Task: structure prediction
Amino acid sequence: MRRDEEGLSEIVRTVARETLAVILVYGLGLAFYGHLTPGGGFPGGVCAACGLVMAVLASGNRSGFVAAIRGRVAALEAFGALGYLGVAALGWTAGQFMQSSLPRGTPFTPEGAPFLVILNLAVLLKVGAGLFAGFAALVAFGREAPPAGGGEGRA
Amino acid sequence: MERFLPLFTAVPLLAGFACLLLKRAAPRAAPALSVASMATLLLLASAAAIRGEEGVAFAGGWGVRSSGEGSFVAGIALVLDGLSRLFLLLVAVVGTASAVFALRYLAPEEGLPLFHVLFNLLVAGMNGALLAGDLFNLYVFLEVASLASVGLVAWRTGGAEVEAALKYLVLGTLSSAAILLGITVLYAATGFLNMADLSVAVSGGAVPRVPLLLAAGLFVAGFGMKTAAMPFHAWLPDAHPSAPAPISAMLSGLLIKTLGIYALLRVLPVVTGMDGDLRAVLTALGLLSMWGGVLLAQAQDDLKRILAYHSVSQMGYVLVAVACGTWLGVAAGIFHAVNHGLFKSALFLSSGSLERVAGTRRLSGMGGLFRRAPATSAGLLGACLSISGVPPFNGFWSKLLILVALLSAGQPAMAGLAAGAALMTLVTFVKVQRKALFGPLPARLEGAREVPASMFLPVLALVLLCLASGLLWPAGVDGLVGSAADAVASPDGGPGAVRAYVERVHGGGPR
Result:
């Protein structure tokens, strides 16, 4: 097994495994309460991506796992961006681009501003997947067969 | 129309991320998506230009609020006026030509969808910067466009390309940092980011002279670096030739104008004011670029490097014209910037075709190509005549207008120097034509063949636009360029244009 596929010691792996879920939920929470507390989709996405990066660093890049999921992560990122654009475009039905077109609930609750929550979740997806895709590109650097005419594989 | 101003950024963003989503499933859809998004933008921009649309859109339905001290903008304003309308049209025209050119120029390979993602992000960034009503959005969109262009310069990932991209990234980041610092200074002093609000605050004396000069200096340095004005030009002769030809066309034809010239024309008059000292600095930068660029181009053998140095030189003309401060100077500068966008993108696209035909970018390796590739050569010839300022092409009229503007502003020496640099440009392009298109055909190029129609037709279309803009400018083009100049300067030299901008923003949208 190559050095980078082994991962770190048993202690680090266990701690990473136990904390990963907490970190992911915390990231999600930052995005969910982004309109009420400091936070939002961007910090939530960064938090979630850091959790995933930590998990990969601790457990190792077994049999090129990271390179294998790169494409899917990029697709997730695009999905987040398109979701954001789509929700923003829905605003036109209420009058203006990015205007809230969904009914508002009780203020100061997570469901008080569903439009903002959806936008924040789309940003979470975009930023989280984007950062992890950047990390995955660095991990995969030089491990994949270079494509014929240059391009992303060696970027 | 103003409700739909966000479409100018939303359409390319949509196309770009759709390319990313379909990267694996339908990689061949990416080029078609790019062409479709550019064609949509062309329709939107033409409609706005023909109908003379003006207006302000407030994202999210926010708008102008009034307090005891006057009106201010809450939220993000997108402003469409004569100046942004003209540049949006230019972006759409050159973007469409480049997207069509790229169809056959770039072979289907693994990285191709990613190229189109970055291409669309580049256009979204430029359009966003053109419509931004506040400094921070201008900065964000400027960064989107800059970073996308860095990725596109490095796209071939050869050693030279990565080196050029790194140089471009470092200098581009420096210039962005200067712009951001300038914004910070003004924000700290006034608490506003919206340009109309800032204009009111600055003219009311809210910013002391030293911070205002500091901010103006930082903007001149930052946007000057984006314009590639000398001495901030070092990145351009490496970065523009390293990119694939359609991207070189976008960078030289559009990016240095939308992020450089347009931003200078928007921010300096409205926010900091263009006083005599600032104009003198711009004149010095312009003069240096005009002559430095053209002299450095003489020594080059690589066709794309010649074109890149000429971009520096031609931006010098624009700066000198704009800096003379009169309405005519501003109009001449804008006209030349738009003309340069048309002929320089035609030149860069035909340099890509010629590289395909001759297998080299070196002029010393070409010759007699007119017989082998007549359509490509005709495109290059027309664009060369435009940039050299040969009548009746558009380059002649805008250079003439610049000379007239300089003379009428009482700067005969500057007019003489500009005429001299124009002569040097003519000399370079006579050399380019003679070496590349005429003369004996090297034995190596006996089998050279014309490029596909989707590569020479966009170039010929751009050259026809150059000719049309030259022939029709007193009738048709004058309206477009005139209203763009009206947005920046008043014919009487007073602050009317800036006041009109502020009134447009403060008078628009829901209250």
In short: The two ends of chain A are 26 Å apart (CA to CA). Confidence is low (pLDDT under 50) at residues 145-155 of chain A. The CA atoms of residues 36 and 109 of chain A lie 8 Å apart. Chain A touches chain B at residues 71, 74-75, 77-79, 81-82, 85, 88-89, 91-92, 94-100, 147-155 (CB under 8 Å).
